Amino acid sequence: MRTFDARAWVVWLLAGGVLVLSARNPLYLLLLLVISRIVQAACAAPDVGALRLPFWRLAAAILIFSTLFNLLTAHVGETMLATLPAGWWLIGGPLTLEAAVYGFITGLSLVTLLSLFLAFNAIVPTAELAGLTPAALYELGLVLLVAITYVPETARQFRRIREAQAIRGHRLRGLRDWRPIAIPLLVGGLERALNLAETMVARGYGATAHVGTPRPVRLLLLLGLGLALGGALRLTWGAADGWGFVAAGVLAVALAYRALSRRVARTRYRPRRWTWADTVVVIAALLPLALLLPLPGGAGLGYAPYPRLSAPPFSALAGALLLGLAAPAALEAAS
After folding, report:
1. Tens digits of per-residue pLDDT, 179-194?
2. Most CB atoms closer than 10 Å: which of 85, 141, 211, 232?
3. Are residues 11 and 123 in the same domain?
4. 222 and 184 in one domain?
């Protein structure tokens, strides 16, 4: 199985997320949803499937809730389906097909975004994600690594305990029946925590020398936070130049942490090298952003069912560009 660099996967996730948030066209959203499912099926490790969430059940629940909520609360549109009494608080009024379609598209956006995150989480190992943390924030990266791995490990432990109790004839019928499962699960969690603590101490965690923060770096951090806060205030007042201040603030903070990271020594066991396949994944993910978003109307990515429902447009060129996000699956199939 071909493995890609975690940085390439981060670019893939961010590009897909921006496209999902920018698109309201259900055809493009469905295309992105199918692409994310294909990429996960092609690139995820086989043993990850046992811990997957029931995605399609969750997706159906999100779509139904979003459609019904917008249908009952947004009384806008020309195609009336029914009318509720006006005295009913919040939901009283005409129920329109346009409102239902708009709610369905909103739910489809959430489902597609969730699918991208699930694919990213299933493909990229948590250790590589922790390795992307700046060296100056290595303690935060370690804490995030422990927190991320705790949930799936607890799920595995729960499944093992339940299977062992089922062999003994135990069945879950009420709250009292959870005792033979909850207590071993709690004890197992404490044992894993103690083993992790002993392992960290044996490897010298917490014994590193303190690295001071130089005054120029402190000033750069203050400048970055000030610019970000000022940009947020400008955006609150409706000024478009606030995005520039926010971007400048983020850049200043990033430069400050980059300077701090150079003062921290970090060793890597078998560091992974950037390959041509990683470059292909990054270019294929960024190409739709560079070519579609600057166009007027996002080349048909935007769509609104109001005031009267109509068929959403679809561009073959835009669809072909969005297929670039399926580059990891194509490279995996070709390897």
Report:
1. 888 888 888 877 777 7
2. 141
3. yes
4. no
Q: Of the candidates 177, 202, 227, which is a domain's last residue?
A: 202
Say if 208 falls within a structural domain: no
For residue 48, what pLDDT is reported?
A: 45
Query: Would you put residue 97 in left (φ > 0), alpha (ψ -120 to 50) or beta?
Result: alpha
**Each residue of 27-68: pLDDT tens digit?**
999 999 999 999 999 998 765 444 455 788 899 999 999 999
Nearest to 74 by CA among 50, 47, 95: 95
Number of domains the chain is built from? 3
Q: Per the omega criterion (within 30 degrees of 0), is the bond before 125 cis?
A: no
At 132 the three-state DSSP class reads coil
Q: Is residue 257 part of a domain?
A: yes
Range of the domain at 55: 6-131+274-334
Beta-carbon contacts of 138 under 8 Å, excluding residues fewer than 6 positions away, are 264, 266
In Å, how far are 7, 46, 217, 232 from 118, measured between CA atoms? 17, 15, 36, 30
> Which amino acid type is present at position 68?
L
